[in-house]
Amino acid sequence: MRIYTRTGDAGETGLFGGGRVPKDHARVQSYGDVDELNSAIGLVRATEPGDVSDALLESIQRDLFAIGGHLATPDPERVRHALEKASLSDGRITVLERAIDAAEDQMPPLTAFVLPAGTPKAASLHLARTVCRRAERSVVHLSHEAEVPELFITYLNRLSDLLFTLARLANFQAGVGDVTW
Questions:
Q1: Which of 124, 122, 103, 100 is nearest to 44 (CA)?
Q2: pLDDT given for residue 80 in this prediction
Protein backbone atom coordinates (compact mmCIF):
# COMPACT_ATOMS: atom_id res chain seq x y z
CA MET A 1 0.00 0.00 0.00
CA ARG A 2 1.40 3.39 -0.96
CA ILE A 3 1.02 6.60 1.01
CA TYR A 4 -0.33 8.46 -1.99
CA THR A 5 -3.75 7.55 -3.35
CA ARG A 6 -4.30 10.36 -5.88
CA THR A 7 -7.92 10.60 -4.67
CA GLY A 8 -7.33 14.12 -3.32
CA ASP A 9 -5.71 15.57 -6.42
CA ALA A 10 -8.90 17.43 -7.39
CA GLY A 11 -9.09 19.27 -4.06
CA GLU A 12 -11.45 16.95 -2.21
CA THR A 13 -10.85 14.54 0.64
CA GLY A 14 -12.68 11.54 2.06
CA LEU A 15 -14.20 11.68 5.52
CA PHE A 16 -14.12 8.89 8.09
CA GLY A 17 -17.28 6.88 7.63
CA GLY A 18 -17.81 7.99 4.05
CA GLY A 19 -18.45 11.06 2.00
CA ARG A 20 -16.18 13.56 0.30
CA VAL A 21 -15.82 17.29 0.88
CA PRO A 22 -13.57 20.07 -0.41
CA LYS A 23 -10.25 20.25 1.42
CA ASP A 24 -11.13 23.73 2.67
CA HIS A 25 -14.41 22.56 4.26
CA ALA A 26 -14.89 23.64 7.89
CA ARG A 27 -14.74 20.01 9.03
CA VAL A 28 -11.40 19.43 7.31
CA GLN A 29 -10.09 22.76 8.62
CA SER A 30 -11.03 21.84 12.19
CA TYR A 31 -9.46 18.39 12.26
CA GLY A 32 -6.46 19.70 10.32
CA ASP A 33 -5.88 22.40 12.93
CA VAL A 34 -6.19 19.81 15.71
CA ASP A 35 -3.65 17.66 13.85
CA GLU A 36 -1.30 20.65 13.57
CA LEU A 37 -1.71 21.20 17.31
CA ASN A 38 -0.81 17.57 17.92
CA SER A 39 2.36 18.07 15.87
CA ALA A 40 3.19 21.26 17.78
CA ILE A 41 2.91 19.32 21.03
CA GLY A 42 5.19 16.68 19.51
CA LEU A 43 7.71 19.47 18.93
CA VAL A 44 7.34 20.54 22.58
CA ARG A 45 8.03 16.98 23.66
CA ALA A 46 11.14 16.85 21.48
CA THR A 47 12.49 20.12 22.91
CA GLU A 48 14.88 19.86 25.86
CA PRO A 49 14.39 19.29 28.66
CA GLY A 50 12.41 16.32 27.40
CA ASP A 51 11.09 15.01 30.68
CA VAL A 52 9.09 18.13 31.63
CA SER A 53 5.42 17.08 31.64
CA ASP A 54 6.15 14.48 28.95
CA ALA A 55 3.65 11.86 30.16
CA LEU A 56 0.92 14.50 30.40
CA LEU A 57 1.74 15.84 26.93
CA GLU A 58 1.66 12.34 25.45
CA SER A 59 -1.79 11.74 26.96
CA ILE A 60 -2.91 15.07 25.47
CA GLN A 61 -1.65 13.96 22.06
CA ARG A 62 -3.81 10.85 22.37
CA ASP A 63 -6.80 13.02 23.33
CA LEU A 64 -6.21 15.24 20.30
CA PHE A 65 -6.08 12.20 18.04
CA ALA A 66 -9.46 11.14 19.45
CA ILE A 67 -10.92 14.62 18.93
CA GLY A 68 -9.60 14.69 15.37
CA GLY A 69 -11.17 11.31 14.65
CA HIS A 70 -14.55 12.56 15.79
CA LEU A 71 -14.22 15.81 13.87
CA ALA A 72 -13.41 13.84 10.71
CA THR A 73 -16.64 11.85 11.10
CA PRO A 74 -19.86 13.49 9.94
CA ASP A 75 -21.92 10.41 10.87
CA PRO A 76 -20.47 8.93 14.09
CA GLU A 77 -23.17 6.27 14.35
CA ARG A 78 -22.01 4.81 11.05
CA VAL A 79 -18.56 4.08 12.49
CA ARG A 80 -19.51 3.85 16.16
CA HIS A 81 -17.41 0.74 16.80
CA ALA A 82 -14.28 2.28 15.25
CA LEU A 83 -14.73 5.45 17.34
CA GLU A 84 -14.91 3.56 20.64
CA LYS A 85 -11.13 3.88 20.98
CA ALA A 86 -11.50 7.63 20.45
CA SER A 87 -13.47 8.35 23.60
CA LEU A 88 -12.91 11.49 25.64
CA SER A 89 -14.49 12.07 29.03
CA ASP A 90 -15.16 15.12 31.18
CA GLY A 91 -12.51 13.74 33.51
CA ARG A 92 -9.84 14.85 31.05
CA ILE A 93 -10.80 18.49 31.74
CA THR A 94 -10.14 17.82 35.42
CA VAL A 95 -6.71 16.39 34.56
CA LEU A 96 -5.83 19.57 32.65
CA GLU A 97 -7.11 21.81 35.46
CA ARG A 98 -5.14 19.90 38.10
CA ALA A 99 -2.00 20.18 35.99
CA ILE A 100 -2.56 23.95 35.66
CA ASP A 101 -3.08 24.28 39.42
CA ALA A 102 0.03 22.19 40.20
CA ALA A 103 2.17 24.28 37.85
CA GLU A 104 0.82 27.57 39.21
CA ASP A 105 1.57 26.43 42.77
CA GLN A 106 5.26 26.25 41.83
CA MET A 107 5.52 29.82 40.52
CA PRO A 108 4.90 33.37 41.63
CA PRO A 109 1.47 34.68 40.61
CA LEU A 110 1.02 36.21 37.18
CA THR A 111 1.02 40.02 37.41
CA ALA A 112 1.47 41.16 33.80
CA PHE A 113 0.92 40.09 30.22
CA VAL A 114 3.63 37.67 29.14
CA LEU A 115 5.34 37.74 25.77
CA PRO A 116 5.91 34.35 24.13
CA ALA A 117 9.63 34.09 24.79
CA GLY A 118 12.25 32.57 27.06
CA THR A 119 13.78 29.14 26.77
CA PRO A 120 13.33 26.99 23.67
CA LYS A 121 10.97 24.76 25.69
CA ALA A 122 8.85 27.75 26.75
CA ALA A 123 8.84 29.20 23.24
CA SER A 124 7.66 25.88 21.79
CA LEU A 125 4.91 25.70 24.41
CA HIS A 126 3.80 29.24 23.52
CA LEU A 127 3.74 28.25 19.84
CA ALA A 128 1.62 25.19 20.69
CA ARG A 129 -0.69 27.49 22.70
CA THR A 130 -1.32 29.74 19.70
CA VAL A 131 -1.94 26.73 17.45
CA CYS A 132 -4.35 25.46 20.11
CA ARG A 133 -6.27 28.74 20.02
CA ARG A 134 -6.55 28.48 16.22
CA ALA A 135 -7.78 24.89 16.51
CA GLU A 136 -10.34 26.04 19.06
CA ARG A 137 -11.58 28.76 16.69
CA SER A 138 -11.88 26.22 13.87
CA VAL A 139 -13.83 23.78 16.02
CA VAL A 140 -16.15 26.57 17.20
CA HIS A 141 -16.67 27.56 13.54
CA LEU A 142 -17.55 23.97 12.65
CA SER A 143 -19.98 23.84 15.58
CA HIS A 144 -22.08 26.54 13.87
CA GLU A 145 -22.85 24.21 10.99
CA ALA A 146 -22.45 20.70 12.40
CA GLU A 147 -22.86 18.94 15.71
CA VAL A 148 -19.66 19.13 17.76
CA PRO A 149 -19.48 17.91 21.35
CA GLU A 150 -19.14 20.89 23.73
CA LEU A 151 -16.48 18.87 25.52
CA PHE A 152 -14.11 19.35 22.57
CA ILE A 153 -14.36 23.14 22.75
CA THR A 154 -13.94 23.12 26.53
CA TYR A 155 -10.96 20.78 26.22
CA LEU A 156 -9.18 23.00 23.69
CA ASN A 157 -9.88 26.11 25.76
CA ARG A 158 -8.45 24.52 28.90
CA LEU A 159 -5.54 23.05 26.97
CA SER A 160 -4.45 26.48 25.77
CA ASP A 161 -4.46 27.63 29.41
CA LEU A 162 -2.32 24.64 30.34
CA LEU A 163 0.16 25.25 27.53
CA PHE A 164 0.52 28.89 28.64
CA THR A 165 1.08 27.82 32.23
CA LEU A 166 3.60 25.15 31.23
CA ALA A 167 5.50 27.75 29.18
CA ARG A 168 5.78 29.95 32.26
CA LEU A 169 6.81 26.93 34.33
CA ALA A 170 9.49 25.94 31.81
CA ASN A 171 11.01 29.41 32.09
CA PHE A 172 10.70 29.44 35.87
CA GLN A 173 12.36 26.04 36.25
CA ALA A 174 15.20 27.17 33.99
CA GLY A 175 15.70 30.33 36.06
CA VAL A 176 14.47 32.54 33.24
CA GLY A 177 11.90 35.15 34.19
CA ASP A 178 8.77 35.82 32.20
CA VAL A 179 9.25 38.42 29.47
CA THR A 180 6.47 40.85 30.29
CA TRP A 181 4.78 43.41 28.11
A1: 124
A2: 64
